[in-house]
Design brief:
By secondary structure, the chain is mainly alpha-helical. The chain contains eight helices and no strands. It has one domain. The termini are far apart. About 60% of the residues lie in helices and about 0% in strands. GO terms for molecular function: DNA binding. It comes from Dyella dinghuensis. Pfam families: Xre-like-HTH, Xre_MbcA_ParS_C.
């Protein structure tokens, strides 16, 4: 029986580049300011954030990957719910009368800093699609 070398990277480590590239594209589509981008990523140190933004690559922690995953799911759900991409992207910034948002926009809820708020917005959109 021969010993097998372990791979040098784990699948999670390989997701950093694609996840960051996707995030920065979403941030552009959603017209997010730098402070909002950092908040959605879990408030990484400024130097780390700018390194990620410049290189569009890096090893991300589980929390950051989870946040980007929810954001991607929110984006996908909006694209399904609104046939016009501009309308889908604008929805995040519009006041929402749902009890979940209390007259505030979805982006305001998402910018609380809690990963659970990203989950709640994603769940709300999935319910609107009939995926609950």
């Amino acid at each position: 029986m021969t010993a097998h070398a372990l791979p040098r990277t784990t699948p999670a480590e390989e997701l950093g580049g694609p996840a960051l590239r996707t995030f920065f594209k979403l941030a552009e589509l959603w017209n997010l300011r730098i402070a909002e981008q950092r908040k959605l990523l879990g408030d990484p140190p400024e130097s780390t954030f700018y390194k990620w933004k410049r290189q569009q690559d890096g090893v991300l922690g589980r929390d950051t990957l989870e946040r980007i995953s929810y954001l991607l799911g929110i984006y996908k759900a909006l694209q399904i719910l609104f046939p016009d991409p501009a309308q889908a992207d604008a929805w995040l910034h519009k006041p929402n009368q749902s009890a979940l948002f209390g007259g505030h926009s979805a982006i305001e809820r998402m910018l609380s800093g809690n990963v659970s708020d990203l989950y709640v917005v994603r769940q709300y959109l999935d319910a609107q699609r009939g995926w609950n």
